[in-house]
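pls ignore typos typing on phone
magnesium ion + seq
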Amino acid sequence: MPGLFITMEGPDGAGKTTVIEKLIPLLEERTNVTITSTREPGGSRIAEDIRQIILDVQNVEMDVRTEAILYAAARRQHLTDRILPNLEKGGIVFCDRFVDSSLVYQGVARGIGVEEVYQLNQFATAGKIPDVTLYLDVPAEIGLERIHLAKGNRQFDRLDQEGLQFHKMVRQGYLDIIPTDPERFIQIDATKTVDEVVQECLTALVDRYPEYFTNGER
Ligand SMILES: Nc1ncnc2c1ncn2[C@@H]1O[C@H](COP(=O)(O)OP(=O)(O)OP(=O)(O)O)[C@@H](O)[C@H]1O
Ligand SMILES: [Mg+2]
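k done
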């Protein structure tokens, strides 16, 4: 079987990282294929260096297009270092955020425009797109509240300084891009409990890819 490229998207605090951590072991029980769980910059040394520049709290004067280019550059390196090699071996790659995040954060919320950020990322990825994208949907207020509650455990970076309006634009941005690729996106109501969200993601993937994931009868 060919590799399977799955991404997880959604606003800050939607629960992407939490859900992936619980979902991967459940998927592993249902397949013999190796699952690589990753996130940008994904431990890729060069991508990590690029990411440091983006997140540096001192870089307050960073231009929005510079930021978009740096994200695309880090993405390119992570794609070639981690994602493509694992897909070429026939593996399953599960990535926490990918191009859609840039379309929404840089394209919509930062105001560059979705089309231009799309073109930039087409160059960076050479057109590689995920097979399926789980979109965890939460209203901005809920996402922000979760982040606030978690603050003690979370590293504070420059992007956390954004306000409610920014988070609202992010969520609306996602809701607007989903209809442009309805076959790829699976929208999940992420206001439910973590376990419910995990179960919905699991069911969606097992239903869609029975050739990769059995119903647990192995
Ligand atoms: N369904 C849920 N119900 C209640 N709390 C949740 C839920 N999902 C996640 N959380 C909590 O919300 C906080 C943020 O979750 P998490 O870091 O997984 O979000 P994220 O989508 O990865 O955010 P980011 O985009 O900032 O990385 C964590 O403290 C997590 O425990
Ligand atoms: Mg996360």
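The longest helix spans residues 64-88. The chain has one domain: 4-208. more later
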